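Q: Hi! First time doing this. I have a protein sequence and I read that you can turn it into a structure. Is that right? Here it is:
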Amino acid sequence: MDDDEEEREFSKSIVFGFFEQAEATFVKMDASLESKDVAQLSSLGHFLKGSSATLGLTKVKDACEKIQHFGAYKDETGTIEVPDKELCLERIKETMEPLKQDYAEAETILRRFYGPT
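A: Yes, that's right. Below is the predicted 3D structure, encoded as structure tokens:
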């Protein structure tokens, strides 16, 4: 990250804003999974993919990209059509657990780095 105190405060605000955004997105993802709204899951995966990529959280970004693809009825690479809604939902559900674990790990490390809010 950055060493300059002023720059660290700036990046800290971005990172902590991401935490709030990610937590809210996870709640929406869980609700969309419950209601079997694959289009919304794809959209939320895309949204969180972008913000996690900006922060360099590669594991989080990669999982979000998979969710985006599954929600668009594609395989995890986004290249092969998967016309089975239930299969896509199952793959999203299977991806959510490691996504949340990877997010929690990144959050712990970043909170330790930045200190209390």
